[in-house]
Specification:
Strand content of chain A: 15-25%
Distance between the termini of chain A: 24 Å
CATH superfamily of the largest domain in chain A: Stage V sporulation protein AD
Largest interface: A-B, 62 and 61 residues
Structural class of chain A: alpha/beta
Oligomer: homodimer
CATH topology of the largest domain in chain A: Peroxisomal Thiolase, Chain A, domain 1
Chain lengths: ~325, ~325
C-alpha cells in the first residue's frame, strides 16, 4: 500500500498527466485582472439560451469540448467524466454534459468540486481504470444567487464579507500517456463545522476546512510549505484568506508569501464591486484551467498545492438555523 | 490495462470485499414484506429530531455506525466515505456524517447514488488507495417530497405511476482484507434522456438508462443474462420495470425470470397504497444492505448485477419544461 501517505493523502505511482485544459467565463470575469488568461469570454449572460440554468449548461458543455479539442480528442476518447456544479441535483451538469455521452460520476463538494473531480479522476487513471478522463465544473451568477440567496431581480444589499459568484467553467483532460503537467498527490478533506451561520460570509466558514487540509498535506507528506511554489485556495476571498493564514500560523505554518486565492485574483474587488471576491465552482476551475496551469506550463511555478474549498449549506439548512459544514480537497500539481 | 472491459466496464484485479452492511428504515417500510430483513425499524419519522432533514441525518449516521460496528471497526478505520442523498447540496449527508470525521467524497446520482458509491469505493480499494472505505446513502419521505413535489401537508393526489419515497438508509463497509462477498466488476452509466417529462412517472424516465447499462454490462463482459442469479434494479417500480423488460427484449435479451426491482419489493403496493413502488436513495440501499446481501451471504444467490437508477431532475428544470435525464450504475456482486 505504498500509495497511502499519512492519514488523508495518497501519492500516485503512475504518471497522471493534465493533458489539456480550457476555461470560459462571463462578461464581468472577462473585464477583470485575469481577462487574458481565459480561452473565451461570453458577454451574453444567457449564452444564447432562455434561462440561467441553460446558460450554465452551455458553459460546461462548451468548455469541456474545448478542453478535449485541445488534446485532439473527442468525448469517445474519454472513459469517464467527473463533474458537478452548485445547483440542486446537479442540473448545471446533467443537462450540460448529457449530449457528450460519457460515463458520468456526479460529484458535489460545493465550490471544492473541481478538487474532488481532479482527485477521483487521477485515482481512476493511476488505478488503471482509464486512459483518459474529463473533469469539469461550472457556476453561474444568476442560477446560484437564485438558489442560495436572492434572485438577481431583488437587487439585495451585499455585505462586505459576501462574495460574487463566478459565471464560468473550467475543464481538464487527465491522461495516462502524455502531458507537460502531472498530478502527483491528493489530500482528501473531512467536513469541518465550527458553527459559522452567516451565509454572507462563506470565507469564514471555509477557512478552517482549508487550514485542516493544508495542514494534513504538510504532515502526511512530511514537507514544509516551501515545498510548493504556490498554495492556492479556491474562493476564500479576502476575509477567509486572512483567517486561513492566521489559523495556519497558530498551527506553526506560515504560508503568507506562498498563498494565493482564486476568488481574490479573478476580480478587481474595488473597481468591480465584488466585495470579498469571487466564489462558485466556476471560480477556481476557470482560474486553474487558465492562469494557474498556464503558469505551470511556462515554468513560472513548478509545483503547487491546489486546494479549493466548499461549504455544504442550502436554504433549508440555513432557514432551519444550521451552520455551514465545509470541506477542502488538496491536489498536488507539478511541471513534468 | 487489463482492468478495462469493453466500453463502460471494469473488472477488479484485487478482491474488493463487502465486509459488513446495515440498513435502517421507517415505520412504513417496517410494515412491508421486507420487514424482517432490516437491522432496525424507526417508528418515529423525526427520529427524535426537529425536522425531516435532521431525521435523515440520523438515519445516515446511525446506519453508517452500525455497519462499521458489525465489522468491529470505527470511523478511524475508514480511509474514505463515499456518500450522498437526494436533497439539494447533499444536506442529508453533510450534516449526517460530519461527526464521523472521515475524508468524504460527496456523490450525486439521484437514486443511483448507492451504485456510484460502491463503484468508486471499490475502485479506491482495488487501486490501492484504501484498506477500508464506507459507502452510505439515504432518503426520507418528508424531505424528498418537499424538495421534489409537494410538502406532505398538502396531501396531494398521487397518480398510479408515482412512487413512494423510502425513509431509510443503507451502508456498507468495503475492505481489501476480509469478507464473504465481493465486488468483481462495475459498469458505469451514461446520461440517457428520451424526453419523458412526467415527474409522477420516474420509472418511465429511468428504464431506458437501466436498459443501456445492463445491455453494456452483457456486451462488455461477453456474457448472457443467466450469468447472474438476479439482475436487480433500484426503484423503477412497476411501470418502469415493465418498460425495462420490453426494451431489453427489443435488444435481444430476455431477463424476465431474472429481474427484481427493490422498489417493487419493499412495499406491498396494494395493501400499503404505494402505487408504482418505492423510490429514493434509501430504497435500493436499504434493500441491498438487508435482503440482497443476506441472500448472497446465505448462498441463495451467488452472483448478482445490482443496477440502481436515478433521474437528474429538480423543480427548476421541471418548471422550465425540461425532461428527466437519467443514469444507471451497474455493480457485479458475488459470493466468495
Amino acid at each position: 500500500m505504498e500509495k497511502i501517505r499519512g492519514e488523508q493523502s495518497i501519492a500516485f505511482e503512475q504518471p497522471v498527466y493534465i493533458r489539456s485544459w480550457a476555461s470560459m467565463v462571463g462578461q464581468k470575469e472577462g473585464e477583470g485582472p485575469l481577462k487574458d488568461t481565459f480561452d473565451q469570454i461570453v458577454d451574453d449572460p444567457f449564452f444564447g439560451q432562455d434561462t440561467w440554468e441553460e446558460s450554465e449548461n452551455e458553459f460546461q458543455k462548451e468548455t469541456a469540448q474545448l478542453a478535449m479539442k485541445k488534446a485532439n480528442m473527442s468525448s469517445q476518447d474519454m472513459r469517464y467524466v467527473f463533474a458537478g456544479d452548485l445547483l440542486p441535483q446537479l442540473i448545471g451538469t446533467s443537462f450540460g454534459i448529457k449530449s457528450l455521452e460519457i460515463p458520468w460520476f456526479g460529484l458535489y463538494g460545493a465550490c471544492s468540486t473541481m478538487g474532488e473531480a481532479l482527485s477521483l479522476g487521477a485515482m481512476a487513471i493511476d488505478g488503471g481504470y482509464a486512459e483518459h478522463v474529463l473533469t469539469v465544473t461550472s457556476s453561474h451568477l444568476g442560477g446560484t444567487e437564485k438558489t442560495f440567496r436572492y434572485p438577481l431581480e431583488y437587487a439585495n444589499q451585499r455585505p462586505p464579507a459576501s462574495s460574487w459568484t463566478v459565471t464560468g467553467s473550467g475543464a481538464a483532460v487527465l491522461s495516462r500517456t502524455e502531458g507537460e503537467i502531472k498530478i502527483t498527490g491528493v489530500t482528501t478533506g473531512k467536513l469541518v463545522d465550527l458553527g459559522v451561520t452567516d451565509t454572507m460570509n462563506m470565507g469564514a466558514a471555509m477557512a478552517p476546512a482549508a487550514c485542516a487540509t493544508i495542514y494534513k498535506n504538510f504532515r502526511d507528506f512530511g514537507i514544509q510549505p516551501d515545498h510548493y511554489d504556490k498554495i492556492i485556495t479556491g474562493d476564500l476571498g479576502k476575509v477567509g484568506s486572512e483567517i486561513l493564514l492566521r489559523l495556519l500560523k497558530e498551527n506553526h505554518y506560515d504560508i503568507t508569501g506562498l498563498h494565493m486565492d482564486c476568488g481574490c485574483e479573478i476580480y478587481d474587488a474595488d473597481e468591480q464591486n465584488t466585495n470579498a471576491g469571487g466564489s462558485g465552482c466556476g471560480c477556481c476551475a476557470s482560474v486553474l484551467c487558465g492562469m494557474i496551469l498556464n503558469k505551470i506550463k511556462n515554468r513560472e511555478w513548478n509545483r503547487i498545492l491546489f486546494v479549493p474549498t466548499g461549504t455544504l449549506l442550502n436554504t433549508i439548512s440555513f432557514n432551519e438555523g444550521k451552520a455551514m459544514p465545509s470541506i477542502a480537497h488538496g491536489v498536488v500539481i507539478e511541471r513534468v
